[in-house]
Structures are given as structure tokens and as C-alpha cells.
Amino acid sequence: MLTFDEYQQRVVAAARRLPSRSVAATDATDLLGLVTAEPLRSRVALPGFTNSAMDGYAVRAADVQGATADAPVSLPVTGDIPAGDTRSLRLEPRTCWRIMTGAPVPDGADAVVQVELTDGGTETVAIRSAVEAGRAIRRRGEDIEPGDEVLPAGTLLHPRHVPALLSAGVPEISVIPRPRVAIVSTGDELVEPGREPGHGQVVDSNGPMLAALAVECGFEVVAMRRVGDTGEEVRGALTELAGVADVIVTSGGVSAGAFEPLKLAFEGSGGFDFVKVAMQPGKPQGFGTLGNATVFALPGNPVSSLVSFLVFVAPAARVLAGRDPRLTTVEARVAEHWTSPPGRQQFARVVFDDDGRVVRPIGGQGSHVLGGLAGSHALAIVPADTTEVAVGETLHVIPLEGLA
Ligand code: AMP
Ligand code: MG
């Protein structure tokens, strides 16, 4: 039996970052959640032209020196410069232009007097306050100069990066692609979701659940299959999928029964390991490689599949994506006692209480209990040597929402 940490470290250590690829920067919204492979440097200055930070009047500061509310300075208004005005304009001494926020400042102007400090005139304007040179002006390049690094390599792209990305004048960006995940449900008892199961049959809920988890974690699901309990069917499906996926996740067929198709297909073949991990749920685990794909053979009970995906598949696939393998955990205090098996690290389904500071167990800890799974908010991590989880104890928990 391996400890949880030993097995998790083994699968994470085997993962390698995927090769980067160039993607059009205009696909920015498809890039969210991906990691940049190279630094992004701007090709342009930002702002690209000197522009007004306020609605007001473009002036020479020297022309309004000494202006006050009691002794305003009057200047003739040459015209209007709205945002989007593409003309190259000049300011003559002792005149002004009415200018809008974001509009190009005319040559010769060195300040903008905001409209609130004037009488708002359109022919002539009374300016009631002096301004220093540079007031309310955003200078070309004051934010970013050509060649400046806008995003370092390794940036996990988020909506806040989109403006810099799209404004930098760079047509393509180098990113690490989403890991491609294929899902295979095994079991002669499985029926397609939507069909009524007969006696002895169950709906294949793991396949869609694992696919949904993969999407939630930011991976791409490229295939979903359901296969029966023979080694040939499993080997056939996985061999085909190894050509299109970086990660293949199977559920079922790895425990100690008489017909365990993953074991029938791969046990004893090089590159595959079937192990027992000191955890609950999720004790039987299989791990191997097939061509360029990494295979995770997860146990079939839905709760075991979910936990195994989160603690093994997600961390390894995050490494493929160039990300930190660790999922977010938070600390919470135990509000109700429960038990944990000796010598096994437990991932207990819990609900949050008191704004997430407190957890209670839900639904019993059997790995087949679907109701408790649906009602749970998080997995509480109980160390292997703890058998009684006491009220008041603090545990690390993995929230089940916001996995990306
Ligand atoms: P196994 O790991 O194949 O022995 O399966 C353990 C339990 O999980 C059995 O009760 C299976 O019927 C159930 N199970 C396996 N695969 C699925 C699946 N895809 N959807 C729902 N239940 C499943
Ligand atoms: Mg099975």
C-alpha cells in the first residue's frame, strides 16, 4: 500500500508540460485559463497618442496662469475635439480647444482644464483656475513603451489581461494548450444516460461527471466512451484514444473483483501500475502510459471517481497545462464529530456552515452515496493517523466550486 502523498507525487512527477503553440491574440476570450509560454512584449506605445484624461479645454498652462474664480481668464474656443477625432490639430497661443476624455491633445497644448473649472463656454470660455503643465494629460507611452513586457511567461490568462493583450499590437501569443482529456466508462452494467436501467443496470453517471470536472478544471474533453468488461474492449478503446488525447481517464474495473477489465487489459504490461493507496475513498488506482497519453484508471464508485479525479488527475493535468499542480484548499473548523478509517487519508464530503469557516459531514462516507455527494460543498482532508475527527479541530478542505 502506498501513502496518499507517495502516489500523488508519483503521478505529478511523471507529468510534463505540453509543447506551446501560437494562437491569434484576437481569440483572447478562448485563451482564458491558459498559461503564456513566452513573455509578451508590446509592439506599440500605450497610450498610442497623447490624450485628454478629462472633458474640458486644452490650453497652454502659461495662458491660464493666475486664473481664479474671482478673476477668470477668458480664451476663444477654436472648436471641439471629440474622442475618435483623427485630425492632427494645433493650439495657437492664447486660444483653447474644447476636448473630450480620450481625444488627442492638439500640438502646442500642455494641459487640460476640466470643464468643472470653467463656465463651459463654446465660443469663449471663462477659466476659473490655473493649472500646471501636464494636468489631465495622458502622455503617449506613459503606460507602456514599445518593447515593454506586458505579460511575463507563465501568466495564467484572466479577463484582466485581455486589455493589455489586445492593445499590445501583437498578432499572436504563445500559450500552453489545454490538456485534451478522453473519458472511458467501463462496466457491463452501464446504460447510456437518458435510458431507463433494467434490473442489474445503472446509468453511466461517471462519464458525464468526469467530463464536467475536466471542463470545470479548464481542460478540453475530446472523447467520451462506454465499454464493457472485457480486456479487449478496454484495450481497443484506449489504444484509439491515445492518438487524440493527452490524458485518458477511465472509471471502474480496477478493484479486486473477478472481471476487472483495466487489469485484464494492462496488468503486467510495461508502463502500467495497479496499486492500493492508503486513502478513503479511492483505494484501488491504476496509472500508466499509452503512446503519448497518460492513463488514469480510477475506481468506479462515483464518489471515488470524483475524489480520484480531483487529487490525482487534476494536479497532473495542471502540470501539462503549465500550471501549479495544487488545487486551492482552505481551512475550516469541525462542527460535528465523524470517524475516519485507521491508516487511510480520508476525503470526507462536508458542507460549509458559518460563511465557510465551519464544516459538518454529510451523507455518510460510503463511496456509493450519491445524495451526499450532490449535497456536499467540499472535501475535508483527514490525515491517515486520525480516526476520530473531533469538534473544534481545524482541517484543510478542498472546495468543490471554483475548481478552475
Ligand atoms: P467498479 O470499480 O467497476 O468495481 O465499480 C464500482 C461500483 O461503481 C459499482 O457499483 C459500479 O456499478 C459503479 N460504477 C462503475 N462505473 C460507473 C459509472 N460509469 N457510472 C455509475 N456507476 C458506476
Ligand atoms: Mg466495474
Mean pLDDT value: 96
CATH superfamily of the largest domain: MoaB/Mog-like domain
Tell me, what is the CATH class of the largest domain?
Answer: Alpha Beta
Number of strands: 28
Broad shape: elongated
Q: Report the major sheet.
A: 5 strands, mixed, barrel
**Structural domain tally:** 4
Number of helices: 7
Going by CATH, the architecture of the largest domain would be 3-Layer(aba) Sandwich
CATH fold name of the largest domain = Molybdenum Cofactor Biosythetic Enzyme, Chain A
From the alpha carbons, calculate the radius of gyration and give it in angstroms.
31 Å
Termini separation (Å)?
31 Å
Instruction: Give the distinct bound molecules.
Output: adenosine monophosphate, magnesium ion
Proportion in helices: 10-25%
- Give the helix/strand class: alpha/beta
Task: Characterise the protein shown here.
- The structure is a single chain.
- The chain has helices at residues 4-13, 162-167, 206-216, 231-241, 261-266, 302-320, 370-375, and strands at residues 2-3, 21-24, 35-36, 40-41, 51-52, 56-59, 73-81, 96-99, 111-114, 124-127, 137-138, 149-151, 172-176, 180-186, 190-191, 202-203, 220-227, 247-251, 272-280, 284-290, 293-298, 330-334, 338-339, 345-353, 358-361, 378-382, 388-389, 394-399.
- Helix 1 (4-13) crosses helix 6 (302-320) and helix 3 packs parallel to helix 6 (302-320).
- It is 17% helix and 31% strand.
- 39% of the residues are buried.
- The chain has 7 helices and 28 strands.
- A 5-stranded mixed β-barrel has the order 22-25-24-26-28. A 5-stranded mixed sheet has the order 9-6-8-7-10, with no helix packed on it. A 3-stranded antiparallel sheet has the order 2-13-3, with no helix packed on it.
- The radius of gyration is 31 Å and the shape is elongated.
- With 404 residues, it is an alpha/beta fold.
- It folds into 4 domains: 2-16 and 178-320, MoaB/Mog-like domain (Molybdenum Cofactor Biosythetic Enzyme, Chain A); 21-44 and 156-176, Molybdopterin biosynthesis moea protein, domain 2; 51-138, Molybdopterin biosynthesis moeA protein, domain 3 (Beta Complex), CATH 2.170.190.11; 330-399, Beta-clip.
- The model has no long low-confidence stretch (mean pLDDT 96).
- Bound molecules: adenosine monophosphate and magnesium ion.
- Residues 186-187, 252-253, 300 line the site of magnesium ion.
